[in-house]
Specification:
With about 260 residues, this protein is α/β, with parallel strands linked by helices. The protein has helices spanning about 60-75, 95-110, 130-135, 150-155, 165-175, 200-215, 240-250; strands spanning about 10-15, 20-25, 80-85, 115-120, 140-145, 180-185, 185-190, 195, 220, 235, 255-259. The chain is globular, with a radius of gyration of 18 Å.
């Protein structure tokens, strides 16, 4: 069953609970999903729905659509906080990703110089130098780290590459240092009879050690907000997230936001 969220390459602006008024850019197909994770909580659904028929948008197409939308918003004097790469899959899988970032920064500077450019990425393509260089050029490189325990990553995030592991991604994230914003989904429940809970003391202790090694400029903690493919996952209450955030900041001195 198709459950992709975005049927356009450039969409919105929409209100993001973490970023404000956000103009979205979807570098995945408009009618399918391509991702290097197959997360149980992904609002765009499982990868099994297939890649669709429209293919990945090309650099020239994205630039044309983005410029047209920015011109419209500027003419309407529309408030905009951020241009965000997200969509129906992992944006850094698009082979034109680095060039699209360059175009986006150029168009942002022309039409909305005060607006930030953000990329939501699952951190699976950090072995590609061109991806890393492009992420360093944006204002907000928001990099996923849901767990540092491989069995949890395999169960919750379900990376499609058997080579993906926590130790490697932590090393790669450490290269970003204060340029990075680390995004962590906290949830609990079960899948195929296996318990899932990355809010336990052991999970949070391990994440804290990773945050210390990475030294990001900030951390974003969040939990479920919309229906998920795995219906047995549950939202972690805000008061628990606040408690975890307080614990992280007290231990690491890194600011944590909660959504």
């Amino acid at each position: 069953m198709q459950t992709v969220m975005f049927s356009d390459t450039v969409f919105g602006p929409i209100h993001s609970r973490r970023l404000g008024s956000s103009l979205g850019i979807n570098l995945s197909p408009r009618d399918g999903k391509i991702c290097s994770f197959d997360c149980l909580y992904c609002e765009a659904g499982y990868n099994a729905q297939g890649p669709g028929t429209t293919g990945l948008p090309h650099r020239a197409e994205v630039a044309q659509l983005l410029e047209k939308r920015l011109q419209e918003l500027r003419a309407e004097d529309h408030k905009l906080d951020v241009i965000t790469f997200s969509g129906n899959g992992e944006p850094t899988l698009n082979p034109d990703f680095a060039g699209i970032i360059d175009d986006t920064l150029r168009l942002r500077d022309r039409y909305y110089p005060e607006v930030k450019v953000s990329v939501l990425t699952n951190s699976t393509m950090l072995h590609r130098p061109e991806v890393v260089d492009a992420l360093r050029r944006v204002d907000n490189a928001i990099l996923k780290l849901d767990s540092t325990i491989d069995s949890t990553i395999r169960t919750l995030d379900r990376p499609t590459s058997p080579a993906f592991n926590a130790a490697r991604v932590i090393r790669q994230l450490s290269d970003f240092g204060p340029k990075a914003i680390i995004q962590t989904m906290i949830t609990r429940g079960s899948h195929d009879g296996h318990s899932i809970d990355n809010s336990t003391d052991a999970e949070i202790d391990a994440l804290i050690e990773a945050y210390k090694a990475i030294k990001p400029r900030s951390i974003m903690l969040y939990s479920l907000d919309r229906p998920t493919p795995e219906t047995l996952l549950r939202r972690v209450p805000r008061e628990e997230l606040d408690s975890i955030a307080t614990r992280i900041t007290a231990t690491t001195a890194i600011p944590v936001s909660v959504a």
